[in-house]
Amino acid sequence: MDLNGKQVVAIGEREGVNGPSLRLLAEAAGAIVKFSVTQCFV
Amino acid sequence: MSLEDSDPMPEPAILATRYVLAHAPDFVRYGSKPTREVEADPALLDQLAASLRPWDEVVSYPPNQVFIGNLTPDDLAATERPWYEHRVTDASADGQFGRIVTQAALYGLMKLSDDFDMLTITDSVAEQARHDLPRFEHRLDRIVGVTPDELTSVMADNDGLPLYFDGEVAGFMRRVHEQDASLDPHVLFENLACKATAVLAVADLLNDGEVTPADIDYLLNTGEEAVGDRYQRGGGSLSKAVGEVVGCVNATGSDIKAFCSAPVHALITAGAMVAAGLYRYVLVLGGGSQAKMGMKFRAHLRNEVPVMEDCLAGMAFLVGPDNGDGMRLRLDLTGKHPIGAGSSTQAVYQALVVDPLERAGLQMTDIDRYAVEMHNPEITEPGGSGDVPRTNYRTLAAMAVMRGEIAREDMDDFTASRGMPGFAPTQGHIPAGVPYLGHAHRAMRAGEVDRAMIVAKGSLFLGRMTQLVDGVSFVIEHAAGPQDSE
Amino acid sequence: MDLDDQANVNRLAEESEGEMIVILGQPDPNSTALFAETVTRGDPTWAGPLAGVPLGLPVYHVLEPEIKESMDPELYQEHVGLMELSADVDEIIKWVKYYREGGE
Predict the structure, then answer these.
(1) Are C31 and A13 in contact (CB under 8 A)?
(2) Domain residue extents for chain B
(3) Is C31–B298 a contact, with Cβ atoms under 8 angstroms apart?
(4) Does C58 score more than 60 pLDDT?
(5) pLDDT score at B485
(6) CB C27 to CB A37 under 8 A?
């Protein structure tokens, strides 16, 4: 998949890959990150 | 105590640990989530009530038995799931380092902790409370109730929050300020419940006889409550409020706020206070999070499992000079997640776990047991939150693989032997590594564990002031010293 | 999923007119399935704005090969490497695919 120019929503989790990390990775691949968030259930 | 007061640089140790669970089925409706959902769909209240567990099922629930020290985490690992169907026969509410008390006892503790006459309870609840609080001797004369008629008139004369017992109105939290949202009856109910559970944990710890209440110099509270009025929401120091009830007449105190990681911050701080000679005995405490009760109740209903977020927890830890039988707090082996470290999982674990060990020339495999976020998976899994401790231990194992300390095929062994199943109620700061301390103490005394690491993380981003997470860790060793470290 | 987050995803999905994908970072199959279901079939907890709202967004997990190969290898190793090693990758991919492909 080519993420370049793709609109992305990133839903991360503290114990996995968090929102800021997903945003960084997607943006480095050229994606337009519309929204990123880190979920914490506990 | 055998140590001299003049000891110039005492070695700090955790000398005693205490935990409590207060079964509070009628409090679940006032958890943050149930309050909102029931408001939107009142029919949910009956479903919720029908899925709550009775006292004997709560006492015999294996994770609760582990929490108070009647079972070990290893016993739990060997117990078939679902645990709520594999209950402990002849279970006792009194454990080696904790106890479970009834809802009546909780109301009683709240009543005796209420310095502003905000809480009204009925005669029958008060009578039951006095009966249900053995081995507790503070302010019992304040557990006074009213007749049902008197309660009705208090409720007619005041705005406030009706409180329940077995589904019937049996108490009332009156409004003390017309406009102040920080002093809303619901907020004060939360704070009073937090104070009450902390009071019991601290009182029980002091009853153990290691020290007297008057020996305590300082109290560090670590709960998730926010005490204060509208001009200083979260102003705090529930610490001193708790100390007052149990007679810590020589102590002052303050709160450490760091989301779930606060208890670990506080234990490190307490250790530093003792090591510096600032204070001799520091008590770290935390009461229960009423707001988190029933947080996953919709998922529990949907999956037809009991609503298991039905208890408020409390805990207390005594930190003081090493007396030869405590758990030495290795202040040279503490870990922290610095602001500049980055918040990838790898960066977090590197900073929290690997860096402090490397500084001391140790490896991850030199730690016999790790205690991480000890959330009971049976509570989190139905809501799609996974098994948090298992994820944490798998991550630690992966870290050990990356460092070449273990082979990839040994990850399961690492997880099983150095980890444990989650057994703590999902109350934020309560599960944050520290529920293991009681077990660690027992295991160290028995020579089963030499060295353990307590790791806690906090989701600072939930408060919307930063995207950061936080984390801290410390290493404990048996005061006699690990056999292999000399 | 947090209710405000559901509202955000819902709004962005409407605005994007079918051009938006979701990338997940959950560490286990259990939570992956929950989020994948939420952004495809709707909120299974029936608590949030996506309850009964089948957005059908193309949802991927950061551990899936097609996502991995689109990302910078060094950054990927730094941010995802540990989870690649610790997580049950096959199960996670199975669940995210299940919801993405609308399987039964």
Answers:
(1) yes
(2) 327-478
(3) no
(4) yes
(5) 41
(6) no
Band (B7; pLDDT cuts 50, 70, 90): low
| Interface pTM, i.e. ipTM | 0.96
B219: closest CA of chain C, how far (Å):
35
Among the partner-chain residues C21, C25, C69, the one whose CB lies closest to the CB of A13 is C25
Please give the Cα distance from A3 to B313 (Å, whole number). 46
What SS3 state is found at A41?
coil
B387 reaches C (C-beta below 8 A) = yes
Q: Is the pLDDT of residue B486 over 50?
A: no
CA distances from B437 to B18, B142, B159 (A): 9, 33, 43
Residue A31 DSSP code: -
Question: Do B309 and B52 form a contact (C-beta atoms < 8 A)?
Answer: no
Q: Does the structure show a pLDDT above 90 at B270?
A: yes
Partners of C72 on chain A (C-beta within 8 Å) are: 25, 28-29
Q: In chain A, what are the domain boundaries?
A: 7-39
User: Which pLDDT tens digit goes with each residue over B273-326?
Assistant: 999 999 999 999 999 999 999 999 999 999 999 999 999 999 999 999 999 999
Size of interface A-C (CB pairs under 8 A): 105
Q: How far is C8 from chain A (nearest CA, A)?
A: 8
**Of B115, B129, B87, B97, the residue nearest B21 (C-alpha):** B97
Say what the pTM is: 0.95
Nearest Cα of chain A lies from the Cα of B408 at a distance, in angstroms, of 19
Of B343, B385, B428, the CB nearest to A18: B343
What is the structure's pLDDT at B173?
A: 98
Q: Confirm or reject contact between C77 and chain A (CB < 8 A).
A: no
Tens digits of residue pLDDT in B325-358:
999 999 999 999 999 998 889 999 999 999 999 9
Give whole-number Cα distances, B168 to B46, B151, B186, B213, in Å: 13, 12, 18, 38
Q: Which of C31, C35, C82 has the CB atom closest to B395's CB atom? A: C82
Class of domain B327-478: alpha beta
Instruction: Identify which of B80, B103, B47, B474 has the alpha carbon closest to the alpha carbon of residue B299.
Output: B47
Q: Which element (helix H / strand E) includes B2?
A: none
C70 shares contact with chain A (CB less than 8 Å): yes
Question: What chain C residue is nearest to A21 in terms of C-alpha separation?
Answer: C79
Chain C residues within 8 A of A34 when measuring between CB atoms: 12, 16, 20
* pLDDT (0 to 100) of residue C1: 86
B145: left (phi over 0), alpha (psi -120 to 50) or beta: beta
CA distance B406 to chain C (A): 13
CA B378-B31-B473 angle, 5° bins: 60
